[in-house]
Specification:
The complex is a heterodimer of chains A (250) and B (231). With 250 residues, chain A is an alpha+beta fold. Chain A folds into 2 domains: 108 residues, Roll (Ubiquitin-like (UB roll)); 129 residues, Alpha-helical ferredoxin (Fumarate Reductase Iron-sulfur Protein, Chain B, domain 2). In chain A, the strands form 2 sheets. In chain A, strands 2-1-5-3-4 form a 5-stranded mixed sheet. In chain A, helix 3 runs antiparallel to helix 5, helix 5 packs antiparallel against helix 7 and helix 7 crosses helix 9. In chain A, 46% of the residues are buried. In chain B, 73% of the residues lie in helices and 3% in strands. Chain B starts with a helix and ends in a 5-residue tail after the last helix. At the A-B interface, helix 7, helix 8 and helix 9 of A face helix 1, helix 2, helix 4 and helix 8 of B. Bound molecules: protoporphyrin IX containing FE, iron/sulfur cluster and FE2/S2 (inorganic) cluster.
């Protein structure tokens, strides 16, 4: 099929940037979106032009690198998938496809479609870990964890830190990401020990990074490739207010 | 910064205050709509006037009233602050953006809806509350209650005007949409989300947002059509 791509090109953080239109001929509809971008880049290289810079790594929906705002939605139109799992068969011959980087103050553009998501790393560094000694691997069933809780923690842990939630949110809020990272640990015995400090520090870092405030539109969960639930945002709200009023930090 | 100021200047802390004040305003709406049902009593406004007389004299109600003013003010100030911050969080917007499916229109337009509700509150207060407190309101003499202010007359003459009646009805539509998202949103913000109760909160919120503004809208309509002083 033939497509028209309108891709955001920006030389660097200081460049103003703008759209460049590329006509794509004979695109195989079995390709993934990234493979289609590879075809474009190979062509640009042959023509001696600068290829379009974009992040990618696993290409199987688990690393969270492939950030692209495709036709007005993060990771494109299909539900519960990252850009690398988005297939060209979802598009029609003759479509015009707009590709933009994530837009948020906390995610400055590095080049073309690449944005700096180290704000997420700093939020994790603020408390998204377990630092108490949890000993060796315990025997199975030595620490009883109900299946329901284990499943819930696992669901939170499927977050791949892609940032689509921020990209989708009208307020560029990072609540879905942070709530998944807070909940996956708060739900389990090893994580419970530091839960109060953790949520206080991670939320403080989230605010310091300049993300917006959640207004519960729920767009994040709709666009999240892992369909992380709104339940976790509610859980984090409870954790945070509870911690603020009962922790030892004055 | 003390832990308390830190809490309420954080994103979640501010949202918490929005939710608490919003829920307080919702409670107020229940009281307000119930009391005003007396407007429908076909007694030339006697019950309504006695009720407003009672409401202006009672100390407990006076405290609640000042809490209400504080809640409105806090709700507006915090949401405006949050709104300004949210705008700054995305300095460069998207060229193309499609609203995500399942995301309600109300939830994306709470700022505009809230501002319209605020405009309404100001008009409403200027008309009824201001005139009751400082304006010249005719009085009426009832046997037991004695000489009291005839607010019913103010209400009646306001809603004998078509444009004023229409304004109130339209404003109630905005309130309905604000509540449609606000009601459930407040529970989510407070973390009160549970598999068992969430569907109940959503449907109570939905019906509340329709029924309460609907009853409010019936009041001007009833007076315009059945108690109009110009007819
Ligand atoms: C009768 C009057 C009002 C009621 C009952 C009401 C109720 C609510 C409720 C329950 C919420 C949800 C809080 C949350 O998400 O945690 C809310 C949010 C909000 N309200 Fe109001 N409100 C009223 C008036 C106003 C006014 C006058 C404004 C003017 C600025 C306003 C602006 C907002 C905004 C911007 C939000 C945040 C939207 C969001 O978080 O999704 N509201 N309101
Ligand atoms: S919550 Fe979803 S959208 Fe947000 S970073 Fe995690 S996987 Fe991506
Ligand atoms: S490239 Fe790893 S999730 Fe898409």
């Amino acid at each position: 099929m033939n497509l028209t791509l309108k891709v955001w090109r920006q030389k660097g953080p200081a460049d103003k940037g703008g759209f460049v239109t590329y006509e794509m001929k004979d695109i195989n509809h079995h390709m993934s979106f990234l493979e289609m971008m590879d075809v474009l880049n190979e062509r640009l290289e042959r023509e001696g032009q600068e290829p379009v810079h974009f992040d990618h790594d696993c290409r199987e929906g688990i690393c969270g690198s492939c950030a692209m705002h495709i036709n007005g939605r993060p990771h494109g139109p299909s539900k519960g998938t990252a850009t690398c799992q988005l297939h060209m068969r979802l598009f029609n011959d003759g479509d015009v496809i707009t590709v933009e980087p994530w837009r948020a103050k906390a995610f400055p553009v590095v080049k073309d479609l690449v944005v700096d998501r180290s704000a997420f790393d700093r939020i994790i560094q603020a408390g998204g870990y377990v630092s108490v000694n949890t000993g060796g691997v315990p025997d199975a069933n030595e620490i009883p964890v109900p299946k329901k809780i284990a499943d819930e923690a696992f669901n939170a842990a499927t977050c791949i830190s892609c940032g689509a939630c921020v990209a989708a949110c009208k307020n560029a809020s990072a609540m879905l990401f942070v709530s998944a990272k807070v909940s996956q640990l708060a739900l389990l015995p090893q994580g419970k020990v530091e839960r109060k400090n953790r949520v206080e520090r991670m939320v403080a870092q989230m605010d310091a990074e300049g993300f917006g405030n959640c207004t519960n539109t729920q767009a994040c969960s709709v666009e999240c490739p892992k369909e992380i639930s709104q339940d976790f945002i509610a859980m984090m709200n409870r954790e945070y207010i509870g911690a603020k009023f009962t922790s030892d930090n004055v | 910064m003390s832990w308390l100021t830190q809490t309420f200047s954080s994103s979640i802390g501010r949202k918490f205050l929005t939710a608490i004040t919003g829920l307080f305003l919702i409670f107020f709406l229940v009281g307000h709509v119930t009391g005003n049902l007396l407007l429908f009593k076909p007694d030339e406004g006697r019950a309504f006037n006695e009720y407003t007389q009672f409401m202006t004299g009672n100390l407990g109600i006076m405290i609640v009233r000042y809490l209400l003013y504080a809640a409105i003010l806090a709700h507006v100030i915090i949401t405006v602050l949050l709104g300004i911050h949210n705008r700054k969080a995305r300095p460069v917007g998207y060229t193309k953006q499609v609203p995500s499916p399942h995301v309600s229109w109300s939830s994306r337009n709470m700022g505009i809806l809230g501002t319209l509700v605020l405009v309404f509150i100001v008009i409403h207060m200027a008309n009824f509350w201001y005139s009751l407190k400082w304006g010249v309101v005719p009085t009426v003499n009832y046997a037991e209650a004695g000489e009291i202010k005839n607010l019913y007359h103010v209400v009646q003459s306001s809603f004998s005007e078509l444009w004023y009646t229409a304004l109130y009805v339209v404003m109630m539509v905005f309130l309905a949409f604000h509540l449609m998202h606000g009601f459930q949103s407040a529970f989510q913000t407070l973390g009160l989300r549970h598999k068992k109760y969430w569907p109940i909160i959503r449907s109570v919120g939905f019906w509340f947002s329709i029924i309460v503004p609907f009853i409010f809208a019936l009041m001007p309509l009833y007076i315009y059509f059945f108690r109009n002083i110009n007819h």
